[in-house]
Write a structure and sequence with these properties.
By secondary structure, the protein is of the alpha/beta class. It is built from 15 helices and 19 strands.
Length: 449
């Protein structure tokens, strides 16, 4: 990770960690970089945060000042930007979003011409330009100055693409959608309505400050209640930019990314569509998922946390399904990023084809109790590598043996250490997590919030 760009772009509090000057310089560099041999064409989408408009204008100013033409998708999803970039010959795409973070944060995600997250070397060059380590770039003049184009038609084409991917009518299904007052608000209901579902939406009225607020994939309990109260067949919750999906079954039970990978992976294997018989996971996936995969005869690999790393493994090795427990699921035959709405459609296909319920499909997996605590620290590296912390982790590992595990890792986007334990009981999870955190406190590594 670089100084500004983490595992999911340049993210921080708007006008504190991420400023309009930063956005302008990102635009200036990308416009120049992609326009060295031809006039650059760059597409921009944004989520519903109040600051997204501010950053959109700053990026546009920088891009057009460097000579690039900019195409505006307006409020849309991250996967829609990826789709438009790779199918309509753009040099790159930019999504303005901080995903599941609160409204006062924002971010800049850069997507390359193939629809994947931009290469690290390009991010490093952008950072060098922001910090003045690269000479000032030439400004476009005269007819070479870039222009902006309203390109809402690109978003509409993406909606059409999603509808086309569905293999069955949803007319028998009552579906709940939690749009998180974010990007999905402009797309998800249109897709499900077009496919015939009886669609019930919540958190579908963004006002600039309510994105992710007590709703969406990070507050799944709201959708769980909604599904039960309305007697729905299934529910889907998205995050702010709709690249994640967490589902709820007909009984209101949580179906997270691990369970989605199992249901879709097993179905794809049965259909002969699971390339290399392998599903890509991250180190955060539950032990119960792996045991279920083994029982179903499905191979799996692990990557570091981040859909960027899942995607890299999939591209490098030719796998077609991968994802994270948090709901980033990649179906590489159809998309190059996690896509929450696409994930919903793929789950609907399994439920309808198998003529059963989501709850029945997930009942084959026994999820191990898991506890994750985030600890704010002054220095992530020092906290992670502290000798006493390392020893405490080793002691927990020995205690759990084959019936559990501990994972302690640095957040890619925050000054936080994440301590996660899976064990045979909730009590043991808590005891093991707290034992490591107490050592961190004793070493004065924790910053009290």
């Amino acid at each position: 990770m670089g100084k500004y760009f983490g595992t999911d772009g340049f993210r921080g509090e708007a006008n504190v960690d991420l400023t309009v000057e930063h956005a302008f310089k990102v635009g200036r560099y990308l416009g120049w970089y992609f326009g060295k041999e031809h006039k650059a064409r760059i597409v921009i989408g944004k989520d519903t945060r109040r600051s997204s408009y501010m950053f959109e204008y700053s990026l546009v100013a920088g891009l057009t000042a460097s000579g690039a033409d900019v195409y505006l998708l307006h409020v849309t999803t991250t996967p829609s930007v990826s789709y438009v970039v790779r199918t309509e010959d753009f040099d790159c795409g930019i999504m303005i979003s901080a995903s599941h973070n609160p409204f006062y944060d924002n971010g800049i995600k850069v997507i390359n011409g193939l629809g994947h997250k931009i290469e690290s070397e390009v991010e490093n060059q952008v950072e060098a330009y922001i910090d003045g380590e690269i000479a000032e770039l030439p400004l476009a003049v005269g007819e070479n100055i870039g222009r902006t184009v309203d390109y809402s038609a690109g978003r509409n084409r993406y909606i059409g693409y999603l509808i086309m991917l569905a293999t069955r009518s949803f007319k028998t299904m009552k579906v709940g959608l939690d749009c998180s007052n974010g990007s999905a608000s402009s797309i998800a209901k249109s897709v499900f309505d077009a496919l015939g579902a009886k669609t019930y939406t919540i958190h579908n009225e963004p006002d600039g400050t309510n994105i992710n607020k007590d709703c969406g994939s990070t507050h799944i309990e709201v959708l769980q209640r909604f599904v039960k109260e309305k007697g729905l067949d299934i529910g889907f919750a998205y995050d702010g930019d709709a690249d994640r999906c967490i589902a709820v079954d007909e009984n209101g039970n949580l179906v997270d990314g691990d369970l989605i990978l199992y249901v879709c992976g097993k179905y794809m294997k049965e259909q002969g569509r699971l390339d290399k018989n392998t599903v890509v996971t991250t180190v955060m996936s539950n032990l119960g998922l792996y045991k279920a995969f083994e029982k179903a005869g499905i191979d799996y690999v692990q990557t570091a946390v981040g859909d960027k790393y899942v995607n890299e493994s999939m591209v490098e090795n030719g796998y077609c399904l991968g994802g994270e427990q948090s709901g980033h699921i990649i179906f590489s035959k159809h998309a190059t990023t996690g896509d929450g709405i696409l994930t919903s459609l793929m789950l609907m296909e399994v439920v309808l084809e198998k003529k059963t319920t989501l709850g029945t499909l997930t009942s084959e997996v026994k999820i191990f109790p898991q506890l994750l605590k985030n600890v704010r620290v002054s220095n992530k590296k020092e906290a992670r590598e502290n000798p006493k912390v390392v020893k405490a982790i080793e002691e927990v590992t020995a205690l759990l043996g084959d019936d559990g595990r501990i994972l302690v890792r640095e957040s890619g986007t925050e000054p936080v250490i994440r301590v996660m334990v899976e064990a045979s009981s909730d009590e043991q999870c808590k005891k093991c997590v707290d034992s490591v955190i107490q050592v961190m406190k004793g070493e004065n590594l924790i910053v009290e919030s």
